[in-house]
Amino acid sequence: MFDTRELRHKVAIVGAAETNEVGVLPNHSQLQLHAEAAFNALDDAGLTLDDIDGYAGVQGAAVTEYLGIMPRWIDATGVGGCSFLIHVSHAVAAIAAGYCSTVLITHGESGRSRVGVGAPSGGRGEPGGQFDAPFGVAGPPSRFSVPIAAHMAKYGTTEEHLAAVSVATRQWASRNPRAMMREPITVEDVINSRLIAWPLHLLNCCLVTDGGGALILTSEDRARDFPKPPIYVLGRGESAQHQNISQMRDLTGWSAAAEITGPEAFRMAGVGHDAIDHLMLYDAFSHTPIYALEALGFVGPGEGGPWFAEMNSAPGGTLPVNTNGGGLSYTHTGMYGMFAIQEAVRQLRGEAAAQVDGVRTSLVHAPGGMFSATATLILSNE
Amino acid sequence: MAAIAKPLPQPTPETQEYWDGLRRGELRIQRCNTCGRGYFYPRPFCPRAGCHSRDVGWITASGKGTLATYIITHRGHPAFEAPYVIALVELEEGGRMMTNIVGLEDLEPANLPVGAPVEIVFQPSEEDITLPMFRLV
User: Fold this and answer.
1) Does B112 have pLDDT greater than 90?
2) Chain-wide mean pLDDT for chain B?
3) Average model confidence (pLDDT) for chain A?
4) Cα dist from A206 to A332, A364, B72, whole Å
5) Residues of B with CB under 8 A from a CB of A
6) A126-150 pLDDT, tens per residue?
7) Which residue in A29, A361, B37, B91 has the most C-beta neighbors within 10 A?
């Protein structure tokens, strides 16, 4: 049997970049966003498309066609916003196995302007169409939000706790000129913003934007030959549970993160929680990082809300979280996971807009869908 | 401009009995003959981790359950009049389903305690579909 620990530190991110701008980009098709991010990441690594022999991205062959590449390894895993973490996870194994040597992962999403975007899927006969849709769920705000009241009832999590996540995240965004929302906000501002789906108010919900990002990975033995310092993949975990929120195993906890992706990522990395000095916890809504923090074991069950309310995640706090301003205030194209990885890489390289001193090991965690798929990465600059 | 239609389900072979039951005013769900627990939604095996038995059958459930969680949505589907409650109900026999809570005058969280007992209301809709909605007992 193989052991994932043999793949610790074997593959590194040697190129990372986002599109020139993120936000409102009506002059870019979705595929253009993929390509712009790809070329920026190639420039970052000093490579050209001809150097790429592995490709991963949720749109698969649509992008290999658009870019004009014919890779020896592909991965079109598309399970929502954590897909890019899973692409990294799979790329580590593919590079280690010799399937390919240099992997390009791209994300492009015209989530706001909807330029060159396919029709949404989901049929009336699918389980979600039969058993959830008839009750008026309409997009993530009325689906992702459904479990929160159970968490509140079990643990005493409050609207103030939820608001604190948005407040702390905005403090980071105010330090990032690329962030869409930079004006500081208070807990009262969040609670007084209009109700979207109780207990969520407008300022508990992520942005809807356009943008993209890309990564280039290669093996450890080549990783120091690039312009930027290599960022090593120490650990990874991936899983999927329900698709429809009505089928979430435990409404008060993120089972796949607690039982699979967190433990596997830490085990492979060979580090404990105290080694993590920076966190990226995908924040589609204010409760998502609370569930993640608890499931990954940084706090106990039910302690996530108070932890955020104490501003531990904010600038100057004990453990910086979502230092780009997150999906709540930086950007959120729909599948935000790529941007979470990008910020971890920037922090580990020491080139982030709101740079945290001395970041050595960053954990990136994301959901796909509505707590549906799950992925965790542990990255390091050492 | 035509009114926006409510999203209606399209029954499939393994769910037809459930939808036929609702039209008759019966909540037909499946129960595992191995672990003995009810589950939702219908499929020809028990979805519970550690069981996954294919020895399953149909029962008529009591229509009683508890409120597991909910939202009060103010920005929902355009065919629905907001605000409205989208909830998950744990059925007495086992299994959890999405629904709307109906019959409430005042949509305030204080009136909707998690864990409250609920019972089914058979709500006829269009295209011969009856939807399972719930009210507080």
Assistant:
1) yes
2) 95
3) 97
4) 6, 18, 19
5) 6-12, 15, 40-41, 68-80, 83-84, 86, 88, 96-100, 109, 113-115, 125, 129, 131
6) 999 999 999 999 889 999 999 999 9
7) B91
- Which chain B residues are within 8 Å of A153, Cβ to Cβ? 69, 113-115
Here the contacts of B76-80 (C-beta below 8 Å, separation 24 or greater) are B76/A136, B76/A137, B76/A138, B76/A142, B76/A197, B77/A136, B77/A137, B77/A138, B77/A142, B77/B6, B77/B7, B78/A138, B78/B4, B79/A136, B79/B3, B79/B4, B79/B5, B79/B6, B79/B7, B80/A136, B80/A138, B80/B6
Q: Which residue of A has its CA nearest to B15?
A: A130
- Chain B residues with CB under 8 Å of A194 CB are 74
Residue ranges per domain, chain A? 4-115+206-380
pLDDT value for B1: 44
Q: Which structure tokens are listed for B136?
A: 């507080």
Interchain contact, B73 vs A136, CB within 8 Å: yes
Domain ranges of chain B: 16-136
What's the CA gap between B96 and B118, in Å, rounded? 13
Q: How far is A247 from chain B (nearest CA, A)?
A: 7
Q: Is residue A112 scored above 80 in pLDDT? A: yes
Sign of CA dihedral B8, A115, A72, A55: negative
Chain A residues with CB within 8 Å of chain B CB: 123-125, 127, 129-138, 141-142, 145-150, 152-153, 194-200, 244-247, 251
Contact between A92 and A209 (Cβ < 8 Å): no
Closest A-chain CA to B95:
A247
- The residue type at B15: T
Domain A4-115+206-380 fold is: Peroxisomal Thiolase; Chain A, domain 1 (3.40.47)
DSSP bridge partners of B60: B28
Nearest C-alpha neighbor of A248 from the set A201, A288, A202, A308: A288
CA distance A358 to chain B (A): 41
For residue B11, give the chain A residue with the closest CA.
A125
Hey, are the CB atoms on B97 and A246 less than 8 Å from each other? yes
Question: pLDDT tens-digit profile of A154-168?
Answer: 999 999 999 999 999
Q: How far is B98 from chain A (nearest CA, A)?
A: 6
ipTM (interface predicted TM): 0.93
> Each residue of A263-320: pLDDT tens digit?
999 999 999 999 999 999 999 999 999 999 999 999 999 999 999 999 999 999 999 9
Measured between beta carbons, the chain B residues lying within 8 angstroms of A123 are 10
Tokens representing A4?
């994932």
Closest CB from B76, B88, B113 relative to A142: B76
